């Protein structure tokens, strides 16, 4: 966004009025369901430019729920697979278009003194939620490196060593991948004994076992109120 762009007024830590996020989500969904990517992208970018919502809220309260709604429609047979791909592509465009704005805002955020590498594990194609988490961490002052979906274990290890990050954050969107993650995390922890390996994502929602509890990333770390396993 250019320097002339009005600054986002919704502060990062303050939740946007829910009525705003619901109306933005509905507007965005309407555009996407009409296959109007241009319009969908404009809805999101205009809302940020006009300060109606902050970037974290746009991600958590608008874009995420819009995709979940598309997923539900797909399950009910009301949305075709290609339409769901079109929606994901529009959301990715929005997120990438906001990168300069994330960097601009990050420049005025105090450094958290923390660093993380984010990636989806092997064979996990879902990465949009994790990509959004990367920006949310950046806006909380973290140094972040984002690799993307389906990342082999060896590459994760090499990247962590080269980039010298303190943490590796992995996401799982399906229960199947959550189960496989256990083995992967054991491998990674052996290879990277000084690095925290955190997990999260929809695959872990509602899961309450000891292993997940020991590795789950606490999103409250983003506003400084949470602690995560292994955190000191
Ligand atoms: C888009 C999408 C896809 C896209 C992914 C695009 C991409 N690059 O991300 C594509 C087409 C690739 C895809 C593929 C598949 N998908 Co899909 N997909 C979806 C859909 C519609 C939206 C997912 C999404 O992006 N949500 C929006 C993001 C922003 O939300 P999020 O991921 O929850 O992330 C938020 C938080 O969870 C959090 N977060 C995310 N990760 C992490 C990590 C940490 C550490 C933390 C702290 C937080 C965090 O941050 C985000 C912001 O708040 C969902 C529907 C749904 N109900 O979610 C199905 C869904 C996830 N998919 C599903 C399935 C089954 C599949 C396939 C197996 C389908 C198939 N038969 O091929 C494949 C999987 C292929 C593979 N090997 O991984 C199922 C999973 C069922 C389950 N519970 O196990 C779902 C739920 C659809 C359904 N209703 O059945 N999918």
Task: Explain how this protein is built.
The protein has 232 residues and is an alpha/beta fold. Helix content is 52%, strand content 9%. It has 2 domains: 18-106, Methyltransferase, Methionine Synthase (B12-binding Domains), Chain A, domain 1; 115-223, Cobalamin-binding domain (Rossmann fold, 3-Layer(aba) Sandwich). α6 links the parallel β1 and β2 (143-148). The longest helix has 21 residues, at 55-75. The chain is globular, with a radius of gyration of 18 Å. Cobalamin (B12) is lined by residues 59-60, 63-64, 67-68, 70-71, 75, 84-85, 88, 123-130, 132-133, 149, 169, 171, 173-175, 198-202, 217, 219.
Structure, briefly:
The protein has helices at about 20-35, 35-50, 55-75, 80-95, 100-105, 130-140, 155-165, 175-190, 210-215, and strands at about 115-120, 145-150, 165-170, 195-200. The chain is an alpha/beta fold. Helix 2 packs parallel to helix 4 (about 80-95), helix 3 (about 55-75) packs antiparallel against helix 4 and helix 3 (about 55-75) runs antiparallel to helix 6.
């Amino acid at each position: 966004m250019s320097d002339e762009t009005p600054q986002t007024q919704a502060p990062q830590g303050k939740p946007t009025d829910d009525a705003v996020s619901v109306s933005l989500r509905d507007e965005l969904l309407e555009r996407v369901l009409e296959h109007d990517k241009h319009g969908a992208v404009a809805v999101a970018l205009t809302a940020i430019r006009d300060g109606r919502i902050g970037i974290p809220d746009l991600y958590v309260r608008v874009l995420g729920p819009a995709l979940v709604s598309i997923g539900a429609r797909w399950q009910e047979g009301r949305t075709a697979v290609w339409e769901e791909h079109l929606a994901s592509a529009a959301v990715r465009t929005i997120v990438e278009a906001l990168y300069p704005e994330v960097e601009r805002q990050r420049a005025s955020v105090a450094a958290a003194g923390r660093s993380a590498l984010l990636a989806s594990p092997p064979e996990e194609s879902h990465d949009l939620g994790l990509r959004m988490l990367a920006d949310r961490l950046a806006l909380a002052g973290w140094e972040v490196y984002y690799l993307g979906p389906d990342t082999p274990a060896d590459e994760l290890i090499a990247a962590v060593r080269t980039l010298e990050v303190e943490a590796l954050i992995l996401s799982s969107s399906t229960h199947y991948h959550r189960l496989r993650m256990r083995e992967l995390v054991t491998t990674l922890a052996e290879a990277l004994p000084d690095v925290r390996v955190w997990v999260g994502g929809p695959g872990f929602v509602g899961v309450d076992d000891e292993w997940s509890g020991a590795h789950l990333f606490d999103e409250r770390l983003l506003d400084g109120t949470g602690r995560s396993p292994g955190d000191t």
